[in-house]
Amino acid sequence: MPIRIRILTALAPLAGPARAVIALAAVGLGVALILAPLTPQQTAVVTGLGVAVLGLGALLLPAPDTALRLPARVLGAASIVAGAVVALWPSASAPGLALVVGIALVAHGLLRAVQAVLGRGEARVTSVIAALAGIVLGVVALSWPVLTLTVFRLGVGAFLVFQGLALLLALLGDSRRSARAEAASVHASDPAGTLVPDPAADPVPRSRPRGRVARWGRALGASLALVASLALALGTGWALGGVPLPEPGAFYTPPSAVPSEPGRLIRSEPLTTGVPRGAEAWRILYTTTGVAGEPAVSSGTVVAPAQRGDAPLPLLSVAHGTTGVAPKCAPSLSATPFADGAGAALSTLVTEHGWAAVTSDYIGLGTAGPHPYLIGDAEGRNVLDATRAARELDGLRLPAKTVVWGHSQGGQGSLWTGQIAPDYAPELEIAGIAAFAPAANLYGLAEVTKNEAAGKAVSAYIAATWDEIFPELGLADELTPGSAGGVAKISQLCFNGQDALAAILRGTQVPSQIFPDRVLAGEFGRTLRAQTPTGPFPAPVLVAQGLADPLVQPAQQEQWVSGRCAAGVPLDFRTYPGLDHLSLVAADSPLTPELVSWTLDRWAGAPANDTCGATAPPNAEEGS
Known about the structure:
18 helices, elongated, nine-stranded mixed β-sheet, two-stranded antiparallel ribbon
């Protein structure tokens, strides 16, 4: 008998146990991807092992057609190599790893589909459905690279679990067939006395009957895998695509001649979208000052009670948080123009306490840019000039006194507004400054979030705007390799609604931090530090911080607060356990009623709380 037959005969008893190990490994790796709290590198390792397991399966599962045996073996070997590369090199560029994973999954699915079509038996349709699920997952991997190592791991995990269970079911059927075959088989002996199967005497049909439950179970599992894969593909495309937003219209284009003095109202128009019940609102276009002190134009909004008397209304000036850096991202263009930051508290002040509120869009949002993103003194000038311009609106009587609020980017902006007000707008009286999760320590924010998805989105906004505002930094040429495309895409997405999700997910597509460490350590880092508001401030300051905030992190905030306290700047610093960046300013946040009360106290001139002398920052229950 030929040596080849002898080798195959010797290895035949090991095929079943080997396939069982592969099946169990696929199930175990899939469960780990779905349930285990894996880091991106650990996810890469487990995903790579899963691809290798699929390759082993391709080697051990017999091809139904002789012509497919060589492609199956080649695919199996290639998948093993690809999986090993991903598993052994998890720190490599995510797009490169995703390319390997995606190609392997697509190739595996195509081969399985061809094998199912050429094969015989009742499970062909089920096999084709399962193969299509693998192809779809591979396409998703190729389309959204870094999601392969984050969100996409759930899809790969489910696919591995299904493939492993399908292989186990096939093994159970094979074991039953083998038992029947052993009882009825006819063996022949070769000259050396070794028993080998006699192919002519094999009574077992190639297409074995399956139990109805097993057939339907496998078909259902394959269908669910395909539906889940398609849902993942469609959902990922929806999330990353963002939504069409209105572009600024003629209202935002200034006339050929505008006043040279900052803070003058150019035009206004009624605003009806997203206005609190019982309130009246307007869009405004006004003059302001750019980053370098040049004349500029900005837009904004004003809201006031619909029913008001002749007396001046108490006035709130709002520095809004991050909404993006493209003109279409202006809050005044949003369907919810007054929802930014502590929107519920603002609505309460307007509709229940008779206040008016003015919000600057900032230069470059609505109007021509670039937008001075996180450039504190420019944001402060925009806010102060919006306050000046609002006082020129017909039908409103507004005082020269105001309280300033801001969340996140707007928190930094509100602190800068108060800091520069005595020099830039001495006619305005600042009665109080409230900053919620302010980006006060901009360098620290860039450092600690440089590898986080949201941090990459913020860095992309900085890169897109500061390259124009500070050309001497040459930021466009200093981005990490592979970041430029992500920066360009994120810069066109607004940070609100579905676009906010898209911007964050696009951040996951950037393979590494936006700015190299050497750039952060150089002139760019010094420019970031220059955006830190240090005071002194002309009015009482409230700083609120959620202790579960992953973006503006508590340690960074406490460091800034400690520095201000050490410099003799009085602060009312309040922390809120369990609240993150957005829940801190939500309607049901304990900050909401506290903020309303604090603002009313500032207008009334009540004594302000100072926590700088406390041994630890107060929590939400301590109030003011």
